[in-house]
Amino acid sequence: MQVSMNELLLIVLAYLIGSIPTSVWVSQYFFDIDIRDYGSGNAGATNTYRVLGPKWGTRVMIIDMLKGVIAVKLALLLPAYADTEAPLQNLQTCLGLAAVIGHIFPIWADFRGGKGVATLFGLVLGISPWTAMGCVGVFLVVLYLTRFVSLSSIFASIAFPVFILVVFNVDNNAYRIFAIAVALMVLLTHQKNIGRLLRGNESKVPILKYRDRRRQRRRGTGSAA
User: Fold this and answer.
1) What 3 state SS string does 131-163 have?
2) 3-class SS at 78?
3) Which pTM does this prediction carry?
């Protein structure tokens, strides 16, 4: 595909938007620390949640998602794509990927960013809202059952090509390949998490703690009985 100057400018702009290091700037401005020096060392929403708490982790996650949505919507600035489905979807995918790459390698933060899952979700949300909602459902179910954000992200990413190829049967080969590549990319960027999961020392997010305490008390009561 030949890329015009306008398309190239939008891709660069999408990368710059994705490069906004939300967690780094939040941690530096409000807490006078660099989030990458704490927790997992990752400049993402999950590490922000662990280190700075759920309020700031949620805010960072929303902004990182919006980076993907905004990058995808940049395609609408080119009128030539207004009435084309597959070409528009392909351009949106390129713009979204540029934002994800920006999040992982942000020019504004010494190219040390996060894993790009939230921005990647924003990309999918901007192009395929129903697919995104399905992936959210998978993420929340796994998170409820395990409290592992990493495992939830992995399952949600694997669900993405299943929705695209099987459930919705999207008739766009480039997007189908992209969906498979996303699952592989998330698996690749979560290798350390997978290792910690297998060793049993992956950190859980501090949600549903009261549910777990109730279960422990019930087990203790059952053992005492």
Assistant:
1) HHHHHHHHHHHHHHHHCCHHHHHHHHHHHHHHH
2) coil
3) 0.82
